[in-house]
From TrEMBL:
GO molecular function: S-adenosylmethionine-dependent methyltransferase activity
Gene3D superfamilies from the UniProt entry: Vaccinia Virus protein VP39
Keywords recorded for this protein, A-Z: Membrane, Methyltransferase, Transferase, Transmembrane, Transmembrane helix
PANTHER family registered for this protein in UniProt: OS04G0481300 PROTEIN (PTHR43036:SF2), OSJNBB0011N17.9 PROTEIN (PTHR43036)
Domain of life (superkingdom): Bacteria
SUPFAM superfamilies: S-adenosyl-L-methionine-dependent methyltransferases
Domain Methyltransferase type: 74-125
Pfam families according to UniProt: Methyltransf_11
Biological process according to GO: methylation
Protein name: SAM-dependent methyltransferase
Length: 259
């Protein structure tokens, strides 16, 4: 397995129009995000990257939403993804839409996101699955250097492992779009549904929802101790103790007389 960190600087798309079938990809992510928006709560939301900025979250209960990017015109904060200009534990929800695919150091990006994430906050990550038709198309020479195949694609299990190291609990993972084609979409959707759940493993897109968990390193033990339960001694046990004491006293008296 190749290391995630790379010296190559990837061309990062800032709008869905730059990607092949970009508008359809945005609609598919939008549909899944709309299902989760009523479940998200808090005060501040961060949408990191130009692709995340173009995903609508108007149905979310969080009022204050920050769009961070350099080139996308929908941004309201311009900054580097690896050095976010926010205090620690500032956001309740962070959306990363296809940002890990075009990052030369995804570990650093996730650590920076974890720094500004509140405890029990939600992290939504989307990306391309390398074990899919889209991933196999990146092996073709004439598509290797063009979007969206020019980036690095990571499997959903690998992304979940990274989140587990940062102490995130994956509460939802959806892999879909077995046939990533916008033409005759109704037919391809019907065919994908007819194949069953086993075909979702080879889906071109993944949608992960994780929640930050904070556990104490050392378990806190109570200062108080339980008292032993009071158990009265039975009469037979008392009689046995009394008989043994009488026998020992008689033996001691006999020894004294013998002396």
């Amino acid at each position: 397995m190749k290391p995630a960190r790379s010296r190559k600087k990837f061309e990062r798309p800032y709008t869905w129009e730059q990607l092949h079938n970009g508008p359809w990809l945005r609609e598919s992510i939008q549909t899944r995000l709309d299902e989760w928006c009523p479940k998200l709560f808090g005060y501040h939301m961060l949408k990191l990257g130009g692709l995340s900025c173009e995903i609508s979250s108007c149905t979310c209960n969080i009022q204050h939403q920050v769009n961070l990017d350099i080139q996308n015109p929908l941004h309201n904060v311009i900054a580097d993804d690896y050095n976010l200009p926010f205090l620690e534990k500032s956001f309740d929800v962070v959306v990363l839409s296809h940002q890990l695919d075009y990052s030369n150091d995804p570990h650093r990006m996730l650590r920076e996101v974890d720094r500004v994430m509140m405890d029990d906050g939600y992290l939504i990550v989307t990306g391309f699955n390398p074990f899919s038709f889209t991933g196999l198309a990146s092996l073709l020479p004439w598509r290797k250097n063009s979007l969206p195949w020019s980036g690095r694609m990571y499997t959903p299990n690998r992304v979940k492992d990274w989140l587990g190291v940062l102490n995130y609990q994956v509460i939802h993972c959806d892999t879909y779009a077995l046939f990533p084609m916008s033409r005759y979409r109704a037919f391809w959707t019907w065919l994908e549904n007819s194949l069953g759940s086993w075909a979702s493993v080879a889906g071109s897109q993944y949608f992960i929802v994780a929640r930050k968990r904070t556990y104490p390193i050392k378990p806190i033990k109570p200062h108080w101790h339980l008292k032993r339960r009071f158990s009265p001694v039975s009469a037979s046990f008392r009689a046995g103790v009394r008989s043994t004491s009488l026998e020992s006293s008689s033996l001691s008296n006999c020894n004294k007389k013998a002396d």
